[in-house]
Specification:
Pfam families: SSB
Distance between the termini: 38 Å
Helix content: under 10%
CATH topology: OB fold (Dihydrolipoamide Acetyltransferase, E2P)
CATH superfamily: Nucleic acid-binding proteins
Largest sheet: 5 strands, mixed, barrel
Number of strands: 7
Strand order of the largest sheet: 1-3-4-6-5
Mean pLDDT: 75
InterPro entries: NA-bd_OB-fold, Primosome_PriB/ssb, ssDNA-bd
Radius of gyration: 18 Å
Structural class: mainly beta
Order of helices and strands: EEEEHEEE
CATH class: Mainly Beta
Strand content: 35-45%
Number of helices: 1
CATH architecture: Beta Barrel
GO biological process, one term: DNA replication
GO molecular function: single-stranded DNA binding
Low-confidence stretches: 121-166, 176-182
Number of domains: 1
Keywords: DNA recombination, DNA-binding
Length: 182
């Protein structure tokens, strides 16, 4: 039996997406995603929370375009990709390691959980064309934000905020206080 390397997270972006272009024409996008956990302390009854920061690298050109066009600091997203550890050397020649979730050209998903992006007119995200699955890493395509093309099918659709992730809109947007730590 093969092992499976898939990680799924929901959270909010701690900064605007950082898109890098290469001379070859390829592009990647780096995201910093805050993933929160909340619980009630049994001893004190006090609400506690902890935030973990996840580095996400998007190598799928269609998803890079979606991230660049629609995502901003504070955007609520769900991602699914491969867990990878990268080895690199700092300025002093010391070995360093970074862990990240990679949405590769042939795998990974990005789902916007905030609904219709700001600035979009009624209807379609790109004029009158139908969105294809490549822009979302294989997710189901819908004709307009939050609706099925014929309006008769049930279930969740991209941008509707559905999918089992709570709609707690009172969540504080996480901010990093010491940027030099990254």
């Amino acid at each position: 039996m093969s092992d499976i390397n898939i990680c799924t997270f929901t959270g909010r972006l701690g900064a605007d997406p950082e898109v890098k272009s290469f001379q070859s024409g390829g592009r990647i996008c780096n995201l910093r995603m805050a993933v929160g956990q909340q619980w009630k302390d049994k001893a004190s009854g006090e609400r506690k929370e902890r935030t973990e920061w996840v580095q996400v690298t998007i190598q799928n050109d269609g998803l890079v375009g979606v991230a660049e066009r629609f995502l901003r600091k504070g955007s609520r997203i769900a991602i699914s990709g491969e867990f990878r550890t990268r080895k690199w050397q700092d300025q002093n020649g010391n070995d360093r390691y970074s862990t990240e979730i990679v949405l590769s050209p042939f795998g990974g998903t990005l789902t916007m959980l905030d609904g219709k992006p700001e600035g979009e007119q009624q209807g379609r995200a790109r004029g009158n064309d139908q969105r294809n699955g490549d822009d979302r890493g294989g997710e189901r395509s819908t004709g307009s934000w939050g609706r099925e093309p014929d309006g008769s099918r049930g279930g969740s659709s991209w941008g509707s905020g559905a999918g089992g992730f709570g709609d707690d809109l009172d969540d504080d947007i996480p901010f990093i206080t010491n940027a030099s730590a990254w």
